[in-house]
Specification:
This protein is of the alpha+beta class. Helix content is 64%, strand content 13%.
Length: 142
Amino acid sequence: MTGCLGRAADLVKFPAELGPVVRHTLGNVLICDGLDSASQVAAQTGYTWRIVTLDGDIVLPGGSITGGSRPERQAWLLSRRRELESAASLLEGKRSLEKSIVGEIAELRAHIEQAVTIGRKLAGEVDRKDGELRPLLQAMPV
């Protein structure tokens, strides 16, 4: 697996008499070079191993992540949080604008329907007046 350095018990040196303790303690721990690799390895192994990165991040069985208290990581998380809050605020504004526009469209449709109704009435009235005027024009001497 790319980025996986191996089992922790196989990567540490220890006196032979401590072998059973080390294998019991570190036998189900994998070491990865970074959090991205650890996440991939966790997924590939069905989230059954405890995975530790060289930076101190720990992916626990089940997939939760802990550790990695480096200052740059905390700054990244705070920055990411601000980005998410900003995006949520922007989304709320866009939803409000959408609601307003939908209301305006409904109003415009109502006005269009009124205009069409008035146009039909006027067209009917023009036809009726035309019908009244035609015999009068025909009766006039030229």
